[in-house]
Amino acid sequence: MPKTEWIDVTLPLNQSMPQLSADYSSEDSLVRPPKVYRFFDVDKGDKVTMSRLEICSHDGTHIDAPLHFIPDGNTIDSMPIETTVGPVRVLEIKDEKSVTVEELEPYNIQEGERIFLKTKNSGRVYTKVFWDGGFVTISLEAARYLAARKIRIIGFDYMTIADSGVPEMINNVHKAFLTNGIFILEGLNLDGVNPGDYDLV
After folding, report:
1. Is the pTM of this model over 0.90?
2. 187 and 11 in contact (C-beta within 8 Å)?
């Protein structure tokens, strides 16, 4: 069999990983980084070592389910397993500000495809602990264009696909996908991944 190389495109979970500038809670808008700590430690005389991990469901590489933006929407446990298992195409986006329809059109995207978008975000924004507004986003027109093509999943190389500083934009871009049954995979690290066809697991 030919040698196959697998590439991990997920982010490691740690206490200094990138965070969005705020969450969407009406009670608490503070950014809270993940907490990882040991509550039993053999080095301190305990019989076992055990740790506790405390994170937001939006930390690291994660999937947005419909419920994330749609009342009574499906939860992540209802996602078909084939959503994230099978062929995937990585497309390189050159635009410095947003993913546009004009840049997507030449790719001839087909129904049922898994699409990952690699932008200048990869290899750059994950070195920053907090969002500073300088990342590429998906435009609403591009989101609607991809949704109309009935792709299976959209993957993006930042913690969110839309401008989190504009509430109506982040809602509309997410809903363009989620209301059409398209799951959103955010927080991909595509640094060093060449555009092309891959197998996704």
Report:
1. no
2. yes
